[in-house]
Write a structure and sequence with these properties.
The structure holds three protein chains of three kinds. By secondary structure, chain A is an alpha+beta fold. Chain A is built from 18 helices and 28 strands. By secondary structure, chain B is an alpha+beta fold. Chain B is built from six helices and five strands. In chain B, strand 1 and strand 2 form a beta hairpin. By secondary structure, chain C is of the alpha+beta class. Chain C has two domains: 165 residues, Uridine Diphospho-n-acetylenolpyruvylglucosamine Reductase, domain 3; 109 residues, CO dehydrogenase flavoprotein, C-terminal domain (Enolase-like, domain 1, 2-Layer Sandwich). Chain C has twelve helices and 13 strands. Chain C is globular. Classes of the chains: A alpha+beta, B alpha+beta, C alpha+beta. The interface between A and B is large, with 55 and 48 residues.
Chain lengths: 709, 165, 284
């Protein structure tokens, strides 16, 4: 087959028929259920846990049942079960395990935990104030980074603009809840789960149990959406069910109730970004940025999230002088983590919103203002890396202007009932891990197995989670070898059989793993007449990639995808309800492996970005998430969907398969600022945080002082 | 309290001993292994668990077994045997309206319900008809296209039905 | 944790048994199944026995005579919506509620007897001067809905009693408005709602009604304020718009909570009413 042949999704039919199996659909013989006993206080010392009498064949699994009570992520600061102290509401203390859910619930309801409560920190401001120290680091700072380009102190005679931009929690709200099943068979520890990163889970399991490479096995089950939510969290759950299954030597299933899932699993980091810009001749020539992220009580992936937030802070623009700073703070809120975009939605919202506001203050059309700053090939990033590939931002802008009819739309007026507004954003998104991450940390390895019957099997650890990996990757292999798509096999990864091709994150699956498969497939093609063999391919960093992980200097990414977005909104003059009428997007994702899959990522990203921009208002009160179900936490329904149109700019990336770059995250990142800018344009006021809810518009429009909000 | 509850499931008369407070969803999934019926939100907001009870589309996570006594229940497992299903399936495949798949069986059932009521729905009517089904992946546009393709390909299957809510 | 369940064969059986134990009455289940949840797949947490009344014939069906429409408690919201005689403003409220699947199950009696702050039929039934008929083994009482609903999740339902039907006076309303503000365009609970009707004849306002939902714990209806406009000429009424708005302003006590803010609820409700009044009085 040829790569540009349109193919129906390989997993479509069984999903439509409800025949594929998610974790909860699988049957296990003699299965035990587990439910988590959780902390009810945000910070406290556990003085005593008084369990009721535990019936026969029911078990308590806790910190004493695990070899190393640490969840191995980047660091190991989070326990699998609370040790002597709890640090957030909902922190797991133990699992109650048994075969009848009613009995388990009864045990939990009749358990009393006695705490000596300690003072808590519920916001980044409180963390900074440092009246209460909750971690063994100065100022409740987990980590802080600062770097610069050019020399901002040399600027003089500039007009100065500044603003503080905020984003709140966002919940992934994958349709399938988090879950893991632990099993123990013939000396082998097996964990099944809904996950993005089988090898993260395997490594965490080995660390926690002391089991080794050979007798630890992780099997990904069909995953009903993830969006980053199943990047690091499954490691925690896997370690918990491992402890349980090793204790009782029977399969143990931990699947969260939806309310638990919403309240206690990782979410997008709340952020606060201070931006000060220096303007000369209607151009931003310098920028000073300081980002803060709320990590909750454990660092998890937060340092990496912060780095991604920082590394693209020049956005789509050439800014010669920049000082970039970022800090991750500890709080006693729920701990936060990966979510589509991974730091970029926060920092790009701040930057784009700031550009919009500066343009308006300078009385320049934001579209033109942003265009006049576009970065070009050969220029430098904020980390002093060089943009080596072609940058087609001008083409994106031209197409976007035509597609959206921006110039004419700008002239549209309010109606009797609605304020009309239009907003624009341009954002980059780096594909793959930052800096030398792919080469030094991930070291992806893929295998292709040529079978006697002339089928070819993809052996990788990356997962299908809805994004279409099971279609895109086989398409690459089939088209390189020139066989039918049906003759490429790609099963859910089982670490017993697949090499570590890295996690299914960071818009890297098609770009990085797909490229390795492409190269492997070329070798398979050469030897196709041989009966049976395996080709292995390892990641090698491209020569142009220069990166110093100590100083954050060099190419933060191998390649960038780009987007331009226009949003049109109507704001109800009475209720301030916002209706997004149209979203137009133009994307440079290199080359689209499958246009339908790209379309799916575009539409889905837009709608999730719209949720972040104006609807999904998740708040934490005294350390507790206030919206715990599908009603209170309002994600867009089909009725909220705007008209969406998109176009692509083809810009093949030499080190991507067929020129493909990342697409999954990019599509979300530009939407919140486009919508927020459109609302600014509609009501003629400035907005500094998302989501821009009707309540917030009311405050800004009628009680103008933004410091009060 | 366990009682005997009889009902018709996907065309077959069945009977179970169970608590009448138990959710139809749990009975379908656990007792009859009909795992095409998914639990998403478990509060009637997401539509992943919808089934027909006496031809009325309901969230099976909200239905106690007492309310299905002597009634006709049809889940995706029953519906996928029909001609209507085949046309809807084709529409969803062609439009690329499936991603993670968790909401999909529910979307299919809601589409059938919509077309039973309105055989040639407008975009607004499609939106209203599917407003109880949350999809977090697709952004919905391809789902609307799927319904439109279904109508184009086999709309006459649903004609002659009356319009209602 | 399984509790006793009772599935009555008819209304008489139901009322007879109701006197014996303190039952949870279970109709469509769309609220109880959530409120009593503990863990998916585990039993609901009913500490009291449960009686299932959804399918009782006597509690289903809609009837009417010259003066009233009688909606039996276990009609689903969809059934009320599809009924030709149901008041237009009630239909507007119903179609704004939840989603098609829930409307197929949720009953109007459940929405009333549950007495949730956000129940959208409540303000409309207040506006329509609806009454509820309550039945027990030996007694039948009729109460004004505004007396029956006492507060958030609080009603005047006595032990052994059941909400039998909702009785709505038949009346034509020239202008009907049900305006709901939620957090999204479909499948949402009210942050606030404003229901208004007005009848104007020969340039005189001869009826005017307003009810606010989801702001205070109990729906707001105030005949005293409504009467300020009744029997006034349209131009006189126009001059009284601010008097009316100020009157309601004093009655609104919204909350800051996970869905909205006190200020937003109160101010938006007043603005919606203001717009309604301007349009209703100008158009005629």
């Amino acid at each position: 087959m040829r790569i540009n042949t349109r193919k129906i999704r390989t997993d479509g039919k069984e999903k439509i028929r409800g025949e594929n199996k998610y974790l909860e659909d699988l049957e296990f013989k003699n299965l035990y259920y587990a439910r988590t006993l959780r902390s009810e206080v945000s910070r406290g010392i556990i003085k005593e846990i008084i369990y009721p009498e535990i019936p026969e064949n029911y078990y308590i699994v806790d910190k004493n049942d695990i070899y190393r009570n640490e969840v191995k992520m980047v660091e190991v600061d989070m326990p699998i079960f609370a040790k002597d102290q709890v640090n957030y509401i909902g922190e797991p203390i133990s699992l109650i395990v048994g075969q009848n859910k009613d009995v388990i619930i009864d045990i939990i309801n009749n358990t009393k935990v006695i705490y000596e409560e300690l003072p808590s920190v519920y916001s980044m401001e409180e963390a900074k104030a440092n009246n209460v120290t909750i971690i063994e680091k100065e100022n409740n700072e987990f980590v802080s980074h600062e770097f610069s380009t050019g020399d901002i102190s040399s600027l003089n005679n500039c007009e100065i603009f500044d603003g503080v931009y905020e984003t709140t929690y966002q919940e992934q709200l994958y349709m399938e809840k988090q879950g893991a099943v632990g099993d123990y068979k013939d000396g082998e520890l097996i964990v099944y789960g809904s996950m993005q990163c089988p090898y993260y889970v395997k490594n965490a399991l080995m660390h926690a149990t002391g089991y080794n490479e050979i007798n630890t096995r992780v099997i990904q089950t069909d995953t009903g959406g993830a969006f980053g939510g199943k990047e690091e969290y499954p490691s925690l759950m896997a370690c918990q069910v491992a402890a349980a299954t090793l204790k009782i030597k029977n399969p143990v299933r931990l699947i969260f109730d939806r309310r638990e899932d919403i309240m206690y699993t990782t979410k997008r980091h709340p952020s606060k970004t201070y931006i000060k810009s220096y303007v000369k001749n209607n151009k931003i020539v310098g920028i000073d940025i300081d980002i803060s992220l709320d990590a909750g009580p454990y660092i998890g992936l937060s340092d990496v999230v912060l780095q991604r937030a920082l590394f693209t802070l020049n956005g789509a623009y050439q800014i010669e002088n920049a000082n970039i700073k970022g800090t991750v703070y500890a709080t006693n809120n729920v701990f936060t983590g990966a979510f589509r975009g991974f730091g970029a939605p926060q920092s790009m919202f701040a930057l784009e919103q700031h550009f919009n506001q500066v343009a308006n203050k300078l009385k320049i059309d934001p579209f033109e203002f942003k265009k006049s700053h576009f970065v070009k090939q050969g220029q430098k990033t904020v980390t002093n890396g060089v943009y080596v590939e072609k940058i087609k931002l001008d083409e994106i802008a031209d197409k976007l202007e035509k597609l959206s009819d921006y110039k004419n739309k700008m002239k549209l007026l309010d109606t009797e009932d609605y304020y009309y507004g239009i907003g624009v954003s341009f954002v980059p998104h780096g594909g793959g891990f930052t800096g030398d991450g792919e080469a030094e940390h991930i070291k992806a390895k893929v295998k292709l197995k040529k079978n006697k019957n002339n089928t070819v099997e993809i052996l990788i650890a990356n997962v299908e989670m809805g994004q279409g990996a099971k279609t895109a990757l086989p398409k690459i292999v089939a088209s390189v070898i020139d066989i039918n798509l049906e003759d490429v096999i790609y099963n859910n990864p089982d670490t017993k059989y697949v090499p570590d091709s890295g996690p299914t994150v960071a818009s890297r699956t098609t770009m990085v793993v797909g490229r390795l498969l492409y190269k492997a497939a070329e070798k398979v093609k050469e030897r196709f007449n041989e009966e049976e063999f395996i080709i292995e391919e390892n990641f090698k960093a491209p020569d142009y990639l220069v990166w110093d992980p100590e100083t954050f200097q060099g190419n933060a990414y191998m390649s960038y995808s780009w987007s331009g977005n226009v949003a049109e909104v109507l704001v109800d003059k009475i209720t301030y309800d916002v209706t997004v009428k149209n979203i137009y997007g133009v994307y440079d994702v290199g080359y689209p492996i499958d246009i339908k899959l790209v379309e799916g990522q575009i539409h889905g990203g837009i709608i999730q970005g719209m949720g972040m921009g104006m609807m999904e208002n998740m708040t934490s009160k005294n350390g507790k998430i206030e919206q715990n179900n599908f009603e209170a936490y309002s994600v867009p329904t089909i009725k909220d969907m705007p008209h969406m149109e998109f176009d692509l700019v083809i810009n093949e990336y030499d080190d991507g398969p067929y020129g493909a770059k990342g697409v999954g995250e990019l599509t979300l990142v530009g939407i919140p600022p486009a919508i927020a800018s459109a609302i600014e344009n509609a009501v003629n006021k400035e907005f500094f945080k998302v989501p821009v809810t009707p309540e917030y518009i009311l405050e800004v429009k009628e009680y103008a002082d933004r410091n009060q909000i | 309290m366990q009682i005997e509850i009889k009902f018709n499931l996907n065309g077959e008369d069945v009977s179970i001993m169970t608590d009448p407070v138990r959710r139809l969803l749990d009975v379908l999934r656990e007792d009859f292994k009909l795992t095409g019926v998914k639990e998403g939100c478990s509060e009637g907001e997401c539509g992943a668990c919808v089934v027909f009870v006496n031809d009325i589309l309901v969230n099976s996570c909200m239905v106690p077994m007492a309310n299905v006594i002597n009634k006709k229940v049809m889940s995706i497992e029953g519906f996928k045997q029909t001609k209507e299903f085949e046309v809807i399936e084709k529409g969803f495949l062609e439009a690329g309206a499936v991603q993670c798949g968790f909401c999909t069986p529910g979307m299919i059932m809601a589409t059938e319900n919509l077309l039973r009521n309105i055989s040639n729905p407008s975009v607004e009517e499609i939106k209203e008809g599917l407003s109880g089904n949350i999809c977090r992946c697709t952004g919905y546009q391809t789902i609307i296209e799927a319904v439109q393709l279904t109508v184009k390909d086999g709309g006459e299957l649903w004609k002659s039905n009356l319009t209602s809510l | 944790m399984e509790v006793k369940s009772y599935i009555p064969i008819d209304l008489e059986d139901c009322l007879g048994e109701l006197g014996n134990e303190n039952y949870w009455l279970f109709a469509g289940g769309t609220d109880l199944m959530i409120r009593k949840r503990q863990w998916h797949g585990a039993s609901r947490k009913f500490v009291r026995p449960v009686m299932f009344i959804n399918d009782l014939k006597e509690l289903n069906g809609i009837e009417s005579d010259d003066d009233y429409i009688y909606i039996k408690a276990c009609n689903s919201l969809a059934e009320v919506y599809e009924n030709d005689e149901a008041p237009e403003i009630l239909k507007k409220a119903i179609v704004s509620m939840a989603n098609p699947e829930i409307r197929n199950m949720a009953t109007i009696g459940g929405n009333v007897a549950n007495a949730a702050k956000v129940g959208d039929t409540l303000p409309v039934l207040f506006l329509l001067d609806a009454r509820v008929e309550l039945r027990s083994k030996n007694e039948k009482r009729i109460r004004k809905i505004s007396d029956f609903i006492k507060g958030k999740y609080q009603t005047d339902l006595r032990k052994g009693e059941l909400l039998y039907q909702i009785i709505i006076p038949k009346k034509e309303y020239d202008i009907n408005m049900f305006y709901k503000v939620g957090s999204r365009q479909g499948d949402t609970l009210s942050k606030l709602s404003v229901s208004c009707t007005m009848n104007i004849e020969n340039n005189f306002v001869n009826d005017f009604r307003v009810a606010f939902g989801a702001i205070n714990n109990k729906s707001i209806r105030d005949r005293y304020i409504e009467e300020k406009l009744i029997n006034k000429s349209v131009s006189e009424a126009e001059g009284l718009i601010y008097t009316v708005l100020n009157g309601y302003q004093d009655l609104l006590y919204g909350d800051n909570d996970k869905r909205s803010t006190k200020r937003y609820r109160e101010e938006t409700a007043i603005k919606i009413l203001h717009k309604f009044l301007k349009e209703a009085l100008n158009e005629k």
